[in-house]
Amino acid sequence: MSQTTSREVRLAARPVGWPVESDFELVETPLSEPGEGEVLVRNVYMSVDPYMRGRMVDRRSYVPPFQLGEALAGGAVGQVLASRHPGFTEGDCVSGMQGWRECFSAPGANLRKIDPQPAPLSYHLGVLGMPGLTAYVGLHDIGKPKAGETVFVSAATGAVGSVVGQLARIRGCRTVGSAGSDTKVKVLLEELGFDAAFNYRTADLDEALAQACPDGIDVYFDNVGGDQLDAALDRMNPFGRIAACGMISTYNAETPPPGPRNLIYLVGKRITMQGFIVADHFDRLPAFLADMTRWLGEGRITVKETVVEGIENAVGAFLGMLRGENLGKMLVKLGPDPG
Amino acid sequence: MSQTTSREVRLAARPVGWPVESDFELVETPLSEPGEGEVLVRNVYMSVDPYMRGRMVDRRSYVPPFQLGEALAGGAVGQVLASRHPGFTEGDCVSGMQGWRECFSAPGANLRKIDPQPAPLSYHLGVLGMPGLTAYVGLHDIGKPKAGETVFVSAATGAVGSVVGQLARIRGCRTVGSAGSDTKVKVLLEELGFDAAFNYRTADLDEALAQACPDGIDVYFDNVGGDQLDAALDRMNPFGRIAACGMISTYNAETPPPGPRNLIYLVGKRITMQGFIVADHFDRLPAFLADMTRWLGEGRITVKETVVEGIENAVGAFLGMLRGENLGKMLVKLGPDPG
């Protein structure tokens, strides 16, 4: 084994409000040989995702909290350096949940072999990975849009939002997105095929939605909560559906901000608001991968990525993602592409 | 025709905040003979319901707003005095939406003949009427409780809530209710068969729900919104359902109060919150009437009513209902029972 140490990012302190660099530490740690049934992997890309902020809080939730002094975890794709598991051989590309570290040994059962062709490896953390599946089940199974309906998605240039809008377009819907800069709005309109888009930081939300959704909103794919949820409720059509995927606008508040004043519209408009977690929907993975691979091949899905280099910049990438500095999927490149 | 005039309650001003007596006026008005296809009816009972507060506001909603200077409307049951419609004869008992007046002529098509046996006439405005059907579809079709689950209902001694709790018990659920006085809590526990109950005005909501729902809440039937929705979200189980029936705690606010700070639980707990309006579910009327008539006959449903006498007290009954002064269905008796 040529590699004897690895660097990893650990949680040094539980963030209060917005996380800062000093809440994390980068540590060099000895790398153990793979034991029986284990595989040694070097990561090529790791993912930073909004839900990781929630795991930094010490509370019971759908995923256990990160522990102080231990390495963080999250989606990563890499290459097998050595294997003592019959399902893997040196050179295989794999996907797993051991992000935030350069190399690791882990049981083969925790890894999934992925085909490095036809899509770039990084896609398995985005459009072909968890964010893509989140968009797919959230839109289709929770939002249930019909052709001709209007779908509004917030954080529309994000890893999930950018896929939601394009899937809605494929389904024949009017697609409307919000994003946090004029540059992003331009990308939505000119590159991702959205019918309408606006900058939520500068627009009057009610006016912007009235203009972008002349026939109202039938499906709101909510990634942000807060003011945009409030404005969407105002504009929702009767029997509208809200797929509650995340509420990033509230994640870094020391005291959670109050919710929308107009929840009563849920009653009068007979709206269904349904929260979901992608992990409950892994049974949809085969259908998702088949559909998405086909759409990518047909050029019907445009992929956006923001890539930061080196594990020493992983925390910066995470913080930048929370501030909305990424366009498309935010990734950290930890090593060279598979040869 | 012996009756030549009728008294009716009109909307004199649009209430701002809590309605007051002067927002209404009682007017004596000439009674027209029934025309061809019409029926002359004297009301015996009229209903006052929370949703009527919403109709006093001039805005687009699922029911059109009441008009200034015109009689209010709402559920009522009465007896036919004269008929020029082949479907009705003198003495028939009927149900319709011409409440807030003593007598009226209306097309027979707007009326439904009801059987004055075996249940009292007043039940057709409560347990066998719109509130009963609201409880039935909201609990069964929206809340979808399974035997052994915990169902929490707010405003639990109200016309809808008192039925929800008893239906949940019939379905084999743990039933928990909140109400606004210790007397009402006693009724819930001793007369309506609730497993646990608390006074929301005096209890610490989080503590009360923790104690009343040791295994969490699977279905929350929400009649009130506000703080109780917030506390229920805290206590909801994964994959819980919230049937959003009404939010009476907000109806008289001049500025709607902010929503719950913990809506993010919708995501992490994968909760479905679904608003509904009983009028969308009239297809369930036959099943509801069959079930409810049977349960009443078997003594499995206890009915509570608060009856105020005389149309001159109808506004007071409505205001009292908004303040929670009723126990069970709030009714106004407008004339003698059918002979």
Oligomer: homodimer
Cα(first) to Cα(last) distance of chain A is: 18 Å
| Total E-strand runs of chain A | 15
Largest interface here, residues on each chain? A-B, 35 and 35 residues
Catalogue the unreliable spans of chain A: none
Q: Rg of chain A from C-alpha positions?
A: 20 Å
Helical percent range of chain A? 10-25%
Strand content of chain A: 25-35%
Shape assignment of chain A: globular
Mean pLDDT over the residues of chain A: 95
Structural class from helices and strands of chain A? alpha/beta
Biggest beta sheet attributes of chain A: 7 strands, mixed
Number of helices of chain A: 9
Order of helices and strands of chain A: EEEHEEEEHEHEHEHEHEHEHEHE
Walk me through this protein's architecture.
With 339 residues, chain A is an alpha/beta fold. Chain A has helices at 51-55, 130-143, 161-170, 182-190, 205-212, 226-235, 265-268, 285-297, 314-322, and strands spanning 5-11, 24-30, 38-47, 76-83, 93-96, 103-107, 112-113, 150-153, 174-179, 196-199, 217-222, 236-244, 272-275, 305-309, 329-333. In chain A, strands 3, 4, 5, 6, 7, 14 and 15 form a seven-stranded mixed sheet that branches. In chain A, helix 6 (226-235) links the parallel strand 11 and strand 12 (236-244). In chain A, helix 2 packs across helix 3 and helix 5 (205-212) crosses helix 6. The radius of gyration of chain A is 20 Å and the shape is globular. The model of chain A has no long low-confidence stretch (mean pLDDT 95). The A-B interface holds A 54, 61-62, 225, 229, 238, 244-247, 250, 255-277, 280 and B 54, 61-62, 225, 229, 238, 244-247, 250, 255-277, 280. Strand 13 (272-275) of chain A pairs antiparallel with strand 13 of chain B.
